Amino acid sequence: MWTICLLCVFALIFALIRKLYLNAYKEHKNVCIVVLGDLGRSPRMQYHILSFAKEGFTVDCIGYSGSLPLKEIRENPCIRIYYLPPPPELDDKLSRLPCYVVKTVWQTVTLLWVLFRKRIPGYILLQNPPAIPTFPICWFYSIIMDAQFIIDWHNYAYTIMALSLRNDHLLVKVAKIIETYFGSKAQSNFCVSKAFKEDLEEKWGIKAEVLYDRPANIFQSISLMEKHTFLSKLSEKYNIFKGSKENSTVFTEYRLNKVYLSSERPGFIVSSTSWTEDEDFSILLNALQEYENAIVQETCNLPNLICVITGKGPLKEFYMAIIKLKNWKHVTIITPWLESEDYPKILASADLGICLHTSSSGLDLPMKVVDMFGCGLPVCAYNFKCLPELVIHYENGMIFSNEKELTTHLISWFENFPNNESQHKLDEKFRRELRNFQENRWDGNWTSVVLSHFK
Length: 455
Prior knowledge:
The chain has about 450 residues and is of the alpha/beta class. About 45% of the residues lie in helices and about 20% in strands. Strand 4, helix 5 (about 135-145) and strand 5 form a beta-alpha-beta unit.
């Protein structure tokens, strides 16, 4: 009996000391944001970081290096970036399961090391996916440090894992159990679509608030002069953009102190991709082959087409090898490297955006479409379960379900280009809708949905 009482006393003393210590060193207006991926390629989490900093929070962000984060993040004195050391490359030395175990152990140790050597936060916000080891590690850390444990659900981690494995694979089953168990322990949850919110509550009993992706202020429509200036700069690196006349590009001409669109310009489409399994890039390649065939066979009056593809990812080399084998004379694909401030400009300069995102769960919405909409660019997007929350067919864009439908849209959009009256009317209709979309930006949306959870 006395032993139990003594243990209780010691437990109370320990709890009191821990509480006093945390109160002395914890910064209640400090948020720790965890991204177990390339921080510079996580735009939504970067927007979170900037929004917290604007509200007077100090922000510690943890992630991997690679692409540079936004300049505003790098130069903000209220924001500290902690880069995790990358796990060892063992893919060619170990089979999948041992390699995955070693990687997870490495990430667990390095994440814990960084977490316990930084400032003590009042809140810890993590991106999902991935869920392993971030869910259990960040939950454990939040318990020790008496911090709020908060999850921003971009997708289900186990469904992404199932793309390269199988739904019944042991690793996928374990990942789902961990994601379910620790996901339910979060004090607050945000997710990217209404369909996702409903699925989280129905399957796992997790209540989340919908925080739709909205374009940052950098994603804007641009003037014809800005378009000409940008394309002229781009033509210094890529000859395909050079015009035949002085002070011209392949799309624009500068004469008499004014910029004009060339009447003989090619069509210009742009697609942003992460080159992963949840984007079947062969759909676009096959549609472009049909477009090329239509020109060669003279079945339609179509312009030449320039297709710009941006992004990095594991399947890029595979698809680039296929592209190099194409002997197209009227369709040109380039994959330029762009500065972060140039990406919005190339979106705003194009005639049509193409999105191939399908979502492993069918519940997340493509942020690349949000960016395109922010720049006033009409989009042709692959259809899946919750896409109508963002793209409404023939209202603010077009949707397709296979390469045949994409081919039809491309040919319809560019037939008799740029003198197709019906296409002009549709383009104007889309852009009117997009102007309404552009009025609700990330900052206002974030303030109305997220901020109250951090006060």
